[in-house]
Write a structure and sequence with these properties.
Structural class: alpha+beta
Number of strands: 23
Number of helices: 14
Bound molecules: ligand EPZ
Strand order of the largest sheet: 21-22-1-23
Strand content: 15-25%
Radius of gyration: 21 Å
Distance between the termini: 9 Å
Oligomer: single chain
Length: about 425
């Protein structure tokens, strides 16, 4: 495969207005949930990213009719023609969210065969809580030979207590519970914005989900789910945060439109603590930064705490803060690999298990670096924008999984980023 990479000329101050795309993590969940609708359903505001493209392939592999206009962000899904309930290994390897097809296929067809999602560069990422929840609803689940074989002659509502807060587990159990007989209560549920988005999508099809966004979610199952109107997914919380960090990192003045400021409060608080200026409007956030940034400490937490997906981009910003910062990664077991790449650019970092200590340096310098996962790639883009000289980022396909036209958006604000293919 030709080695595509990004070339960033650092030192450009970002200025102007940019519009954030629809959310990756909500899109992949809602596209999977579209299987539940007995009638064709239309989803809007979808980002044009690799994970959405893989979701389209997944639905077509199962036999669904899918029309997707990537540039308009609109997708029509007709799941009435689905003729199989087994997901291919290749597709499941290309997208972590393939686990959602367990809950969706089980609820609609009473069976599902999905390869166990592999771990990735940030950790093992098991799905034991997803399985615990499905079994509580009466499903028979076998996980031998690296596959999940799920089967149920009718799901029955139950009480599910999650051993730890899990976004995917909460969503998967909600999907299965939407067609269960009776009410399911999920305790210790995740509260991320896209949990609420998935609940709203299910309710738009006639389900009765209450409490999404709190740690107790009640799902009253229904006989059938009927999509009656197009559903637009919420804006991407992590892309919004990445753009906010890029604005501060280049001492710029950027307004991010089409976002939901209340989703960004943990990051906003930390940017203010560092000395940046953040002004919120109804559906826009303006980030300005002129002077040096103060070093800070932050710990990743479940929502509404500091999002683990912004830990990596934020750690890039801290590399040139005045003083020593401390970053504690509480959600995934190995989400610091990007720091070794940033050391090649002059960052000074020490890692002690789940804690990274970042000593601010006056300046980063451009270098050839490698993205190891999606948000590591975003972190290296931020570092490249900050660095003196040119940075070359390899493995840009990771970035394309979760950011729609990232360099186009950044270049529209004054960045100098090009892609080159050998
Ligand atoms: C979702 O992953 C997101 N992905 C991740 O975003 C995000 O980092 C994560 O939530 C946390 O916010 C999608 O939505 C597609 P979890 P998910 O289940 O659902 C452990 C990105 O960059 N766990 O909340 O897999 C797990 O190992 C990606 O956009 C179990 O032990 O996250 C992890 O340590 C990266 N057993 C922790 O819980 C389970 O059954 C949180 O995982 C489930 C999870």
């Amino acid at each position: 495969m030709a080695e595509e990479r990004m070339l960033i000329t650092g030192g450009q101050r970002l200025e102007g207005t940019v519009r954030v795309s629809g959310g990756k993590n909500t899109a992949v969940a809602i596209i999977a949930a579209s299987i539940l609708s007995e009638t064709p359903c239309t989803i809007e505001n979808l980002p044009n990213i690799e994970d959405v493209a893989v979701s389209v392939e997944m639905l077509r592999y199962l036999g669904a009719k899918v029309d997707w206009c990537p540039d308009e962000g609109v997708m029509q899904v007709d799941s009435r023609t689905i003729n199989r309930t087994d997901v291919s290994l290749d597709l499941s390897r290309r997208m972590r969210a393939s686990s959602y097809y367990i809950g969706a296929l089980l609820a609609r067809f009473g069976r599902a065969q999905v390869p166990l999602p592999g771990g990735c560069d940030i950790g093992r990422r098991p799905i034991d809580q997803h399985i615990k929840g499905m079994r509580a609803l009466g499903a028979n689940i076998d996980t031998s030979r690296g596959m999940v074989f799920a089967q149920a002659d009718g799901l029955v509502g139950s009480e599910v207590f999650m051993d730890m807060v899990t976004v995917g587990g909460t969503i998967n159990v909600m999907l299965a519970a939407s067609r269960a007989q009776g009410t399911t209560t999920i305790y210790n549920a995740a509260k991320e914005p896209h949990i609420v988005d998935v609940a709203n999508f299910l309710n738009s099809m006639g389900c009765r989900v209450k409490g999404a966004g709190t740690d107790v979610i009640r799902v009253r199952g229904v006989q059938q789910l009927i999509s009656r109107r197009p559903y637009a997914v919420i804006p991407d919380q992590i892309e919004t945060g990445t753009l906010m960090i890029a604005a501060a990192a280049t001492h710029g003045d950027v307004t991010i439109c089409g976002c939901i400021p209340t989703h960004m409060e943990a990051l906003t608080a930390k940017l203010l603590e560092m000395g940046a200026r953040v002004d919120e409007r109804d559906d826009a956030i303006r980030v300005r930064s002129i002077g040096a940034h103060r070093a800070i400490t932050f710990k990743t937490q479940v929502y509404p705490g500091f999002p683990t997906d912004l830990q990596q981009p934020m750690s890039a910003l801290l590399c040139t803060a005045t003083g020593t910062s401390t970053v504690v990664e509480n959600i995934f077991e190995s989400r610091f690999r990007h720091l070794a790449e940033m050391e090649r650019m002059g960052a000074r970092v020490r890692i002690f298990e789940q804690t990274a200590v970042i000593e601010g340096v006056p300046q980063l310098h451009g270098a050839a670096v490698e993205a190891t996962d999606l948000r590591a790639g975003a972190a290296l883009v931020i570092a490249g924008l900050m660095a003196q000289g040119t940075t070359e980022i390899y493995n840009t396909h990771f970035i394309d999984r979760g950011y729609e036209h990232l360099e186009t958006k950044l270049n529209s604000l004054g960045a100098k980023i090009t892609r080159i293919n050998d």
